[in-house]
Amino acid sequence: VGCVLFGWLPMLALCLALPLAFIVPVFELWRKKEHPLLNMAIIWMGLLYIALPFVLMTYMQIVEYRSFPLLAGMFLLIWMNDTFAYLSGRFFGKTKLMERISPNKTWEGTIGGIVFTILGALAIGFLFDSDQVLFWTLSALLIAPCAVLGDLLESMLKRNAGVKDSGTLLPGHGGVLDRFDATLFTVPFFLTWATIYQYI
Fold it and tell me: Minimal CA–CA distance to 166: which of 180, 156, 177?
């Protein structure tokens, strides 16, 4: 609703999205499940967790902070964090971060990911516009922890559901959701931060 009011999305997007939310309770009339309220809450949470970030990304793809696209910068930093967190954890990881949720994640890997994400942010700033250095460096300090939390959250949801992978579309990668877990969690925080920063 806010995106439409501020002119970021056309009214058609809102008109298509709102009926979907209200169709959910109607389906429960025929499903004959014992806990319809719980089922509706799960579906609505899925819409909020998955659909909302993608809606926000449609807005972010047309926004540039100075001379570098906002969405591209976010993706680069998330991928850099994931890659170097994995490599740092593999070669130096000893201290478990949250073993009951994700046994393979370590503090060493997490710290390594954050450090290299900051270096990547500095590179974006210096290569494309020196005025961007502070913004992207501070963004890295937000994006890296958000990416880790997004990954942990998705792992928690899978454990609660009793499944190892979120899907079979991408064999060996844990499912499509596993490829976007960090992004889905990061998008709302990063867009909020980028918007606030323009007024500072």
Answer: 177
